[in-house]
Amino acid sequence: MPESQTTDTVSNSGVPEKFYVRFTREQRYMHAVLFTSFLGLAATGLPMRFSESFWARRFATAVGGFGSILFLHKFFAVVLTIAFLIHVKDIFQRAFIRREKGIFWGPTSMVANWKDVKDIFGHMRWFLGLGPKPKFDRYAYWEKFDYWAVFWGMIVIGFSGYAMWFAPFFAHFLPGWALNAVLVIHSEEALLAVLFIFSIHFVNTHLRPDSFPMDMVIFTGVESEEEFKEKRALEYERNAKLGKLEGRTGIVPPVWLLNFSKVVGFTAIFIGLLLLVLTLTAYFS
Ligand code: HEM
Asked: Which distant-in-sequence residues (6+ apart) come within 8 Å of 180 by Cβ?
């Protein structure tokens, strides 16, 4: 069935429930490549950083030594780099060829604006029971933060990683001290990325009370009308006012997709949390 076709299911209250598309198939695939390659990079980078710890040695023995770990690290790095370049190409195409309005500014943009600042304070007030919950648009302030943390991290980690990988080439235009510095930059930024993704991103996206234990939308691409209204009220209201809601209806996620998504999602969270615990224990011991 095409993604834009609608099918109603029955909610707990017995009322037929509609589903709306939030992420396209391409966006979901991109996220899948992003998180699998990132997990691969973290699982191979951390044993190199904490090579003295027992788990790093065991892992190295299991895969054929630290040389194999480095080979796998470079493999995942190439996969992530290709995904990142495709994403940057898409942004350029949308902005400068298709001249899509609102990609850099406005309610559907990833770029932070004044409303995000007000939402941060409004949300804090709501946490303390001092005001109403703010209404969010397509991307809430924490989602924008997550996006830019990864985007910026990708540039820093990627550049420093390639500078180490192709050190003789980079030595043509970087001083010697900079080639030493890139190892520190790569290592520390990678640690920051691991801590951020496996704690803050996991909590922000999946462990919030309204998404717990996992937000399925990044796997299925659709969310129920109830979720849409609750989580992104401003986007829902704007689409309703402009008569665009019907064009966004999606199919009820099939049971196999929900089950598959749960297995993949919980496995990713488990690996992430395991790496987080191993990193913290190695770091403080
Ligand atoms: C395009 C992306 C990346 C490239 C090209 C890359 C490349 C490299 C290379 C060449 C090394 C050097 C290993 C050595 O010879 O000692 C390395 C180390 C490492 N990488 Fe990456 N990497 C990338 C992304 C990542 C990411 C996303 C993470 C974390 C999630 C990460 C974590 C690490 C860690 C922890 C080390 C060990 C640093 C140390 O020894 O202190 N890397 N990487």
From this structure: none
Task: Indicate the pTM of the whole model.
Answer: 0.90
For a mutational test of ligand 1's pocket, the pick from 78, 84, 157, i.e. the residue with the most ligand atoms closer than 8 A to its C-beta, is 157
And the tokens for 168? Answer: 């003789």
* Range 57-68 burial, b when 16+ CB lie within 10 A, else e: eebbeeeeebee
pLDDT in tens, 74-113: 999 999 999 999 999 999 999 999 998 889 998 999 999 9
CA of 219 relative to ligand 1 center, distance in Å: 28
Q: Give the 3-state secondary structure of 18-62.
A: CEEECCCHHHHHHHHHHHHHHHHHHHHHHHHHCCCCHHHHHHHHH
Closest CA to 68 of 50, 39, 43: 43
For residues 45 and 112, what is the distance between their CA atoms, to the nearest angstrom?
A: 31
